[in-house]
Write a structure and sequence with these properties.
There is one protein chain. This protein is of the alpha/beta class. The protein is 35% helix and 23% strand. The strands form two sheets. It has a six-stranded mixed β-sheet with strand order 6-7-8-3-9-10, sandwiched between helices. A four-stranded antiparallel β-sheet has the order 2-1-4-5, covered by helices on one side. A hairpin with a 2-residue loop joins β9 and β10. It is globular, with a radius of gyration of 19 Å. The chain starts with 8 loop residues before the first strand and ends with a helix.
Length: 255
């Protein structure tokens, strides 16, 4: 008997409408545990809204989201984090007036369901925070204010705080946006090391070099719809995707 693997994420006809505008228009897909999936598409394609719906920030207009076998439509983000769904954002977040270590400690403590209202950290929590910073190459910046550290370090810290409690699914919204080519290369290496931990990673990215280097599956969205689902190498040859990125006349000429 062949054992079937339960998908980590299932989206069935997900839609999000703002009046007459369909920001997400009937997207259905299934993602398996351990997959690394990159989502591309033009600005305004609905990619971030799709993430907002999955992660509980925005209510759906229609459809259902199932995470790890449980319907999560309408579940708030903090509850989703506690069951293994973590998410980062386009704008690199963090408490700018706190140090890198203090940001990491906040994630260690308040990322647990048992967290109280206090700001007292025990030795074990400090060790966990420092170990995470060392893993992400941030330990030398532990006493620096987040507002003063470079963009690459802030992006690394955002991911480090998201994965400190070992989520089952990690959503990254444009993780290398604004980085220099050498910094993108460093982030590619970081993502490949994360893949080795077994976490399922789904990310949005406009930097195609990053998407093709990291993802083993590519999704392309356009006008709220999913127009491609296949290998990262395959979307460059897809006529519809080429017409979306290059324009229909250009795609025809180059075909």
């Amino acid at each position: 008997m062949i054992e079937t693997v339960q998908p980590i994420l299932e989206c069935c006809e997900i839609a999000k409408h703002y009046g007459a505008l369909a920001a997400v228009d009937g997207v259905s897909l299934t993602i398996q545990p351990g997959e690394t999936v990159g989502i591309g598409g033009p600005n305004g394609a609905g990619k971030t809204t799709f993430f907002d719906v999955i992660s509980g920030l925005t209510p759906v207009s229609r459809g259902q989201v199932v995470f790890d076998g449980h319907a999560i439509t309408g579940v708030p983000p903090h509850r989703l984090f506690h069951v293994g769904l973590a998410r980062t954002f386009q704008v690199t977040s963090g408490f700018g007036s706190l140090t890198v270590l203090q940001n990491m400690l906040a994630a260690v403590v308040f990322g647990t369901q048992k967290a109280g209202a206090g700001l007292l950290f025990n030795r074990s929590q400090r060790e966990q925070a420092m170990h995470q910073l060392e893993t992400f190459g941030l330990s030398r910046l532990s006493n620096s204010l987040v507002t003063n550290i470079p963009a690459l370090a802030r992006k690394k810290l955002m991911v480090a705080t998201a994965v400190v409690h070992q989520p089952k699914l990690l959503l990254l919204d444009e993780p290398v946006g604004g980085l220099l080519p050498a910094e993108v290369d460093e982030f590619i290496a970081l993502m490949k090391s994360l893949r080795g931990t077994g976490v399922c990673i789904v990310f949005i990215e406009h930097v195609m070099r990053f998407l093709t280097a990291v993802a083993d599956r590519a999704l392309i969205m356009h006008q709220g719809k999913l127009i491609f689902d296949g290998t990262p190498e395959g979307f460059a040859k897809d006529e519809l995707v080429r017409s979306v990125y290059l324009g229909s006349e250009t795609a025809t000429e180059t075909g």
